Amino acid sequence: MKISILQGAFLPVPGARGGAIEKAWFELGKEFARQGHEVTHVSRLCDGLPAREWIEKVRHLRIEGSDAVASSLLLKFLELPFVWRARRVLPRADVLVTNAFWAPILLGSGKFGKTYVHVGRAPKGQMKLYRRAGRFQAPTEAVAKAITAEIPKRSDLVSVIPYPLPWKVEAMRSFGNRPKRILYFGRIHPEKGVLELAKAWNRLGSTQRQDWGLRIVGPWKPAQGGGGAEYLGKIQEEERKSRGSMQLGEPLFEEDKIKEEYANGRIFAYPSQAEKGETFGLAVLEAMSFGCVPLVSGLACFQDFVSSDFGFVVNSNNGDFQEELGDCLAAAIEDQASHESRAAAAYRRCADFEVEKVARRFLEDFERT
Questions:
Q1: Given a cut of 80, is residue 112 above it in pLDDT?
Q2: CA 95 to CA 57: how far, in whole Å?
Q3: Phi/psi at 279 (nearest 5 deg)?
Q4: What pairs with residue 247 in β-bridges?
Q5: Following DSSP, what letter does each residue of 251-285 receive, concatenated?
Q6: What is the pTM for the complete model shown?
Q7: For residues 13 and 145, what is the distance between their CA atoms, to the nearest angstrom?
Q8: I want to staple 67 with a disulfide (CB 3.0 to 4.6 A). Which of 29, 119, 223, 242 is the partner?
Q9: What is the mean pLDDT of residues 71-89?
Q10: Which sign does the torsion angle of CA 162, 163, 167, 172 carry?
Q11: Which tens digits make up the pLDDT trace of 116-148?
Q12: How many Cβ atoms from other residues are within 10 Å of residue 2's Cβ?
C-alpha cells in the first residue's frame, strides 16, 4: 500500500518542538514501512531539517510552513498556503492521512489517495466541509461522538483508534527508589490547567504536602504551543510562594530526557481544562508506561485509558476546579500505600498502545477507507 501522511503547517517532524500528533504519526509511519508499505511523510521545513531525507525507510518531504499564533482563525489562514504547496510534492498514493484543516477540501479529488482525516482535536463545524473524505479517525470515543454529531448521516465512516506510545514499553523501573514527586509534563498553557495546579499545590498545608514536591516541565513560548511569557510569569510567582516545594523546569524535547522525567515521577498530574481541545492526553499514557500513577481531570477523553481503579480523577462537580484539584492532590499523597499497586496497573494498561498493535489497526482501517 502507498501511504502519504500530511501534517499541519506549524510543527516539524521529527518533533524538535514537541507535538503529540506529529510524534504519533512519525512513529506510525516508520511502523507502516517496517510492515512493507511505501510511506511518504510531508511536514514543515524548519529547524535545520533537510527538505528531503529518508528515515527508517520513510521518505520525508518538508515544505515551508509558519509559526503558530494564538488566534485559531489566523492559524487557518496561515495553513492554507502550506497545504497548497503540499500539492506540488505529494505523490500518488492509495491513502492520504492528514490533520491539516484545508487538506480534505483542497486535496480530496483522489489524485493523492483516499482522504483519511485524522481528527486530533474536537471538531468545530468543519466536518461538514469534508464531503470527499473517505474516513474520519478519532483518537477517543469522546471525539468520535463529536464528529458524528456534525455528520450523523456519515457515522459509518467514523472510527476510533488511539495514539500509540512513541517507544517500546521498557521494564518498569523501581517505584520505591523514586523521589516523592508529582510531575506535570506538557505545554505550559492555560487550557492545560497548569496555573490551577500550581495554585492548588500552594493551597495545601505543609502537613498535607508532607515531603512531596511538584515539578512542572514544558514549553511556554506561543510558537511551541505555550501560553506565553505573561502566563509563565504567573506560574513563576506560584513557584516563589511554594518555599522550595515546587520546581519549574526548562522545556525538554529530547526523548531520553523526557523518559528520565517520567522515570523519576511517582504521580503524573495532567489537569487539562481543554474540554473541546483535549482529545487524548498522550503525555499521560507516556508517563503510565514508566509506572507513574495518573492524576487527571474529569474530561471524557481520559476515560478511554485511565481508570479510577489505578488513577486519581478530579471531581469538579461543585464548580471550583482549583479546590477539587487540591483535594485530589491531598488524597493522592495520603494514599501512598496504594501507589505501587496503582503504578503497576497503569503500566500494564500500556501494552495495548504499543505502536505495532496500533499500526495494525490503522492499516485495517485504511483498507476500509
A1: yes
A2: 18
A3: -120, -15
A4: 215
A5: P---HHHHHHHHHT-SEEEE----TTT-S--HHHH
A6: 0.82
A7: 29
A8: 223
A9: 93
A10: negative
A11: 999 988 898 999 999 999 999 999 988 999 999
A12: 15
Cis peptide before 152 (omega within 30 of 0): no
What mean pLDDT is reported for the chain? Answer: 92
The number of residues making up the chain comes to 369
Question: Could you report the per-residue pLDDT of 267-306, keeping only the tens digit for each?
Answer: 999 999 876 556 678 899 999 999 999 999 988 888 888 9
Predicted local distance difference test score (pLDDT) of residue 279: 64
CA 321/CA 196 separation, integer angstroms: 8
Instruction: Name residues whose C-beta falls within 8 Å of residue 142's C-beta, 6 or more positions apart in sequence.
Output: 122, 279, 299, 300, 301, 303, 304
- Residue whose entry in the numeric block shows the C-alpha cell 506549524: 10
Give how far Cα 145 sits from Cα of 168, 232, 320, 338, Å. 30, 34, 27, 34
Task: Give the phi and the psi of residue 316 in degrees, each rounded to 5.
Answer: -110, 30
Helix (H) or strand (E) holding 54: strand 52-55
181-185: strand order across its sheet: 246-249, 213-217, 181-185, 267-270, 293-296, 312-313
The single residue listed with the C-alpha cell 483519511 is 116
As a whole number of angstroms, the distance between CA 354 and CA 173 comes to 18
225-268 pLDDT, tens digit per residue, is 899 999 999 999 999 999 899 999 999 888 899 999 999 999 99
Does residue 100 contact residue 76 with C-beta atoms inside 8 Å? no
CA distances to 34, 87, 112, 243, 330 from 91, in Å: 20, 9, 6, 57, 54
Task: Provide the pairing of β-strand 52-55 with 58-64.
Answer: antiparallel
Asked which of 65-69, 213-217, 332-336 is least confident by mean pLDDT, the reply is: 65-69
Hey, what's the cell of 251? 522545556
For residue 263, the Cα-to-chain-centroid distance in whole angstroms is 19
Outline where DSSP puts E strands in 102-203. 114-118, 135-138, 158-160, 181-185
Find all residues with CB under 8 Å of 148, minimum gap 6, and list them.
155, 158
Residue type at 65 in one-letter notation: G
- What backbone phi and psi angles, to 5 degrees, belong to 132? -95, 5
CA distance 238 to 197: 10
Please give the single-letter amino acid code of residue 173. R
DSSP class of 217? E
